[in-house]
Amino acid sequence: MQAHEDEDEFEPRGHQAETPLSISQLNWFIKNLLERSLPSVWAEGEISDLSRPSSGHIYFTLKDDRSQIRAVMWRSTAERLKFRPEDGMAVVCRGAVEVYPPRGSYQLIVQALQPQGVGPLQLAFQQLHAKLTAQGLFAPERKSPLPKFPRRIGFVTSPSGAAIHDFLEAAKSLWNDFQLFIIPARVQGEQATQELVNGIELAQRINPPLDLLIVGRGGGSMEDLWCFNEEAVVQALAKCSIPTVSAVGHEIDVTLSDLVADARALTPTHAAQLVFPNRSEIQVHLEQLQRRLNQGIWNRAIALKRRLENIQDRSVIARPHDVHRMRRQLTDEWELRGRAAIWNLLRRKREKLSSLARATEALSPLGVLARGYSLTRSAASQQPVRSVDELQVGQTLETVLADGTILSRIEEIAREKA
């Protein structure tokens, strides 16, 4: 209300050329003139000096090679942009010219903005693609292989859409041993992005775990399919612990979900062909394997039969007792040779023992005594007497003969004269 009162205060009425205006009146005069003359205008130029304060508004200068004008896009409009404005970008914008009387300046209030030469969705796609590529989300090495025979499959899509019908029709003609879990989510519109993310997260909590997760819908325009290009959906697919298939129904355009998923199907029908083995092809393959197995067994049997025929004429097979007799004869020969070797060894040992006995007997003192000699020793110490110098009169001696011992006492000692 105050603003209208201010306008009334400064708006010149019945102005004459000779009557001077205040600056405030002049600015309000210009404001009314411009804003009434240009309520909406299209302009093209290059963005420069772009800034994004925390308020969410976007401030920038729109210029060409000769002139420039300040422009602002309020937060409510900026939030609806699919691409990110940047310095140097050539754009076409629609807006209204607004004059700010306190400073005597004017600016363009941008109500719509689109890049020149490329659509806003395409530009947004390119910008987000570059960002996610730098993060490595599209790298082939991070993708997981699809299971060959999945049994528990989740499908995040609209239950009322054609995608489920097309998928099931194709699946039934290929394979029938599977369970399909339909996880409802909108696939178009403002709420589609969050519902797709919620569906992907829910699929990972299903127990027992799913073998495979499909995310997709039927065909549509780029605007209809845009939720599959939203960063939140792409990030959710990248973090999914289940092998994923993107089955968005379009063959020409590629969504970012197609690039981040472990496999891309051109349509939901193609998804079934990609996910399931072909029952007929499997049957043909099994029949081929069976024929190869039977042929292999037959060839093996023939080879064993020929080998048996080759060895049945050998003497060990034809006359097995010959081998037994030969081995028994050889054993007898070994026994005879062993006995002879033992007796020869005993004979040599006996002869050697006899030789040692004779040598021992020749050296034995008893043998000397048997030839008429005797041995004299001290009765007390039992030591042999070698010299008369060792004896004393009255000492008792023992004389050892071959057949006994004589005790005697020394009465006299006579030494031989030299």
TrEMBL record:
InterPro entries: Exonuc_VII_L, Exonuc_VII_lsu_C, OB-fold_nuc-bd_dom. It is found in: Cytoplasm. Its EC number is 3.1.11.6. GO terms for cellular component: cytoplasm; exodeoxyribonuclease VII complex. The keyword Cytoplasm applies. Keywords: Cytoplasm, Exonuclease, Hydrolase, Nuclease. Residues 137-353 form the Exonuclease VII large subunit C-terminal domain. Residues 21-113 form the OB-fold nucleic acid binding domain. It catalyses: Exonucleolytic cleavage in either 5'- to 3'- or 3'- to 5'-direction to yield nucleoside 5'-phosphates. One of its GO terms (biological process) is DNA catabolic process. It is an enzyme of class 3 (hydrolase). CDD domains: ExoVII_LU_OBF (cd04489). One of its GO terms (molecular function) is nucleic acid binding. The keyword Ribonucleoprotein does not apply. Belongs to the XseA family. Bidirectionally degrades single-stranded DNA into large acid-insoluble oligonucleotides, which are then degraded further into small acid-soluble oligonucleotides. NCBIfam families: xseA (TIGR00237). Heterooligomer composed of large and small subunits. This is Exodeoxyribonuclease 7 large subunit. The lineage of its organism: Bacteria, Pseudomonadati, Planctomycetota, Planctomycetia, Pirellulales. The gene is xseA.
